[in-house]
């Protein structure tokens, strides 16, 4: 699986970060319309925290690894 580092606007809710928008390399802001779920890997399936998000009518995974955000590249 390939991942690309991205900028993400997020808010802190208690002890977790909630992604609000993806910022494109050209500065374009893509509002995240829904966070479908957030999970930690139980069997080393992936690194960090995985968020399933919906934006611009599409669903994708965002990963938070060591304070950096990544999006799954298809």
Mean pLDDT: 88
**Judging from the principal axes of the Cα atoms, what is the shape?**
globular
User: How many separate domains make up the residues?
Assistant: 1
Low-confidence stretches: none
Indicate the radius of gyration in whole angstroms: 12 Å
Strand content: over 45%
Determine the N-to-C terminus distance: 8 Å
Give the ordered list of helices and strands.
EEEEEE
Helical content stands at under 10%
Structural class: mainly beta
Q: How many strand elements? A: 6
Account of the protein in words:
The chain is mainly beta. It has one domain (2-73). The chain is built from no helices and six strands. It has strands at 2-13, 16-23, 29-40, 49-55, 58-65, 68-73. Strands 1-2-3-4-5-6 form a six-stranded antiparallel β-barrel. It starts with a strand and ends with a strand. 9% of the residues are buried.
SSE inventory with pairings:
Elements: E1 2-13, E2 16-23, E3 29-40, E4 49-55, E5 58-65, E6 68-73
Antiparallel strand pairs: 1-2, 1-6, 2-3, 3-4, 4-5, 5-6
Key features of this structure:
74 residues; mainly beta; six-stranded antiparallel β-barrel
Outline:
The chain is mainly beta and 74 residues long.
């Amino acid at each position: 699986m390939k991942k690309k580092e991205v900028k993400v606007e997020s808010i802190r809710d208690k002890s977790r970060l909630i992604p609000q928008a993806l910022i494109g390399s050209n500065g374009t802001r893509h509002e995240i319309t829904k966070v479908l779920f957030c999970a930690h890997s139980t069997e080393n399936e992936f690194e960090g925290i995985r968020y399933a998000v919906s934006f611009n009518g599409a669903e994708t995974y965002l990963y938070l690894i060591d304070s950096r955000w990544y999006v799954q590249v298809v």
